[in-house]
Predict the structure.
Amino acid sequence: MKTMTLVLGVLLGTSVAQGQVTPDKIVEEVRIDQKMNTKLPLDLRFRNERGESIALREYFGKRPVILAFVYYECPMLCTQILNGMVATLKTLKFTAGREFEVLTVSIDPRETPELASGKKEQYLLTYGRDGAEAGWHFLTGEKESIEALTDAAGFHYVYDEKTDFYAHAAAIMVVTPEGTLARYFFGIEYPARDLTFAVMEASQERIGSAVDQLLLLCYQYDPAAGKYSLLVSTVLKISAVITVVTLGGFMVVMLRRERKARRRNEAGEDA
């Protein structure tokens, strides 16, 4: 399966030994492997929003699970992932806690249940579905548990100690009730129809097929500004340029057709 990795902007290129992530390390290590039909390690323990230690299997067994890896203090792509997910979930006839579960897992072992609780409150308010508080879970955990789960799911990321940022890609996964990876959705927008079918198929323990990837990386350093900027905004700018070029081409074609029609009319009048 082909993988198209989108890395935009200039990344600061000092050595990894100094604690900073290089562009080569980003390209090599930040990726998502589609591990369909792989069973997640459900005995791993995490902390829920109330700070209680709980095994992953407590969220499985009855319904499919939509899984998202983010970190709650991420200033960039994680918010776009969660916003895109909740926007799609609001359009579904299915409801979290009734037809499926949602697991949002922080990849930063330093984050606390208090942070998770705040995020849960924020997104439940946006979601606006009764009973969803019992079906959308925001977890934190120890480094070992996080790495074991992300590795099993094929979600590979890099932490930059010098800048205190995580370089990671954007995706969500659909998992069967028995904990088997069934489908991956890449980017920050998830088609409602496709997600609905994925949940329905996963509920029957059916596994989807791998898809081509366009990875949005949550990491971009601007040496001129001396800070990290939002990669998504760059992607949107590129999309805008493509749109303008497409519209421009359409206008040129229409103008040519109009000129040809005018010439034919003039030729008819002369005759």
